[in-house]
Amino acid sequence: MLLGLPDFEILFPASVGEASAMLAEHGIEAKLLAGGSDLLIAMKHKKKLPRVLINIKRIPGLKDIKTDADGTLVIGALATSADIAAAPDVPEASSALRQAAEVLGTTQIRNIGTIGGNLGNASPSAEFAPPLLCLDAGLTCAGPDGERFLPLDQFFLGPGRSALGPAEVITEIRVPPPPAGAADTYVKHSLRRMDVAMASAAILAAMDGERAATVRIALGAVAPTPFRALKAEAVLSGHPVTEQLIAAAAEAATDESTPIDDIRGYAGYRRGVVRDLVAAGLRQVLAAAGGNEKASA
Ligand SMILES: Cc1cc2nc3c(=O)[nH]c(=O)nc-3n(C[C@H](O)[C@H](O)[C@H](O)COP(=O)(O)OP(=O)(O)OC[C@H]3O[C@@H](n4cnc5c(N)ncnc54)[C@H](O)[C@@H]3O)c2cc1C
């Protein structure tokens, strides 16, 4: 069945300041529009009915992907998944980020959907959230009072809810350099390849000799928001790597998950998927960081 869009007015701001002023003027009746791959579908299904769409795609400078002098990777909010998958700077900072960009939706969605929209939608299954949480990333948000930096771990408040102010626009994602020698990965389980995740995990680790110096684990689609599984991280961080500790960390991540039953999967099944994804991701990343010969022995 073909669904039509409800009536709306569309505005084309020429700058972030203008977009923010339009948001302030139209209040809850307005929504920012980037690629539209989330918002237009929600409008067709009458789940969101903004009267005014503020199309930010013509604002210059929001699509750049670059590395600052201090090594911070800066991704413009309008960079698409395809841009991120192809950007030469991205694998330097993180394989997980590139992997997330490569598995998000379909080719068409990757060509149109932006990272700003992916995070701005505040979905528990937002593909970019777990790798960015592991990388301690943050957002630059511009609003009527100017710019502010918002750490990503303070951004997600609940399904569809974020700490973004009512007239704020995400302008860029800032990714600090990973710890020296760190490796990371992103693993996702979905019914079909193009579907949003039933459960997903990003894992980052760095070794100090035989010990796991840093272990970061972030989970998607198994709680009201994407989150860092801090108890699971603590099981391994600072300890010599063993298969038993990897299994214990995966179990702890499972315990920290609070998935729901929905159309994509039952809660119990999702918890099992978390256990498997985290264990497999940890083995892969610890091996890449040079530390799990013992674990795999
Ligand atoms: C077939 C299909 C498959 C999909 N598969 C996946 C998947 O596997 N994984 C996944 O994570 N998602 C998936 N999606 C969802 C969606 O495509 C992505 O989340 C995409 O990155 C959204 O970006 P967009 O630019 O299209 O956002 P839009 O639809 O334009 O916007 C989404 C929301 O973010 C807000 N927003 C947009 N830009 C900004 C900004 N700069 N600042 C503040 N708020 C902003 C908008 O107001 C809106 O509320 C899928 C969608 C479809 C239709």
Q: Mind explaining what this structure looks like?
A:
By secondary structure, the protein is an alpha+beta fold. The chain folds into three domains: 9-55, Uridine Diphospho-n-acetylenolpyruvylglucosamine Reductase, domain 2 (2-Layer Sandwich); 65-175, Uridine Diphospho-n-acetylenolpyruvylglucosamine Reductase, domain 3 (2-Layer Sandwich), CATH 3.30.465.10; 183-296, CO dehydrogenase flavoprotein, C-terminal domain (Enolase-like, domain 1), CATH 3.30.390. Helix content is 34%, strand content 24%. It has twelve helices and 14 strands. The protein has helices at residues 16-26, 39-44, 81-86, 89-93, 95-103, 107-112, 115-120, 129-134, 230-236, 243-256, 267-288, 293-296; strands at 9-11, 30-33, 52-55, 65-67, 73-76, 138-143, 146-151, 156-158, 161-162, 169-175, 183-189, 199-208, 211-220, 227-228. It has a five-stranded antiparallel beta sheet. A four-stranded antiparallel beta sheet has the order 11-12-13-14. Helix 9 (230-236) packs antiparallel against helix 10 and helix 10 runs antiparallel to helix 11. The protein starts with 8 loop residues before the first strand and ends with a helix. The protein binds flavin-adenine dinucleotide. The site of flavin-adenine dinucleotide has 32 residues, from strand 2, helix 2, helix 6, helix 7 and strand 10.
